[in-house]
Amino acid sequence: MAGYLTTHVLDTARGCPAEGIRITLCRVDGGAAEPITEAVTNDDGRTDSPILAAEAFRTGSYELTFHCGDYLRATGQAGAGGLFLDEVPIRFTMSDDSHYHVPLLLSPFGYSTYRGS
After folding, report:
1. Cα–Cα distance for residue pair 92/115, rounded to 1 Å
2. Sheet with 104-107: strands ordered across
3. What is the DSSP string of 81-113?
4. CB-hemisphere CA count at 13 Å for 82?
5. How far is the C-alpha of 81 from the C-alpha of 65, rounded, in Å?
6. Which run of H or E residues covers position 73?
7. Which stretches of the chain score pLDDT less than 70?
8. What b/e readout covers 65-96, taking b as 16+ CB neighbours within 10 angstroms?
9. Which residues contact 31 (CB under 8 A, 6 or more apart)?
10. What pTM, to 2 d.p., does this model score?
């Protein structure tokens, strides 16, 4: 089985998928992050295809950056003092050829993630 990577974003403050969030994926090697691809979440808060497809999959360290600022502004969640969260980077390691799912649960003042299925 070839590995691949998927993600999605849920807006926990509004209780819905987060549409229109740009996500960048970088491979991290020795502290340097090399951009690989980017995608935008659809109306289900997911990317239309895996953000890292099986044919491009390699084990190693990666970073997903969720560019949340425009989404939070557009949904009226920036707050009177401006944004608390703008970009959310998540570094992780994929150590075997399997499906990795790294979601983001987002609110204006916090977030969480986990290895999903």
Report:
1. 9
2. 16-17, 9-11, 104-107, 110-113
3. T--S-SEEEEEEEE-SSSEEE--EEEETTEEEE
4. 1
5. 23
6. helix 69-74
7. 1
8. bbbbbebbeebebbeeeebebeebeeeeebee
9. none
10. 0.95
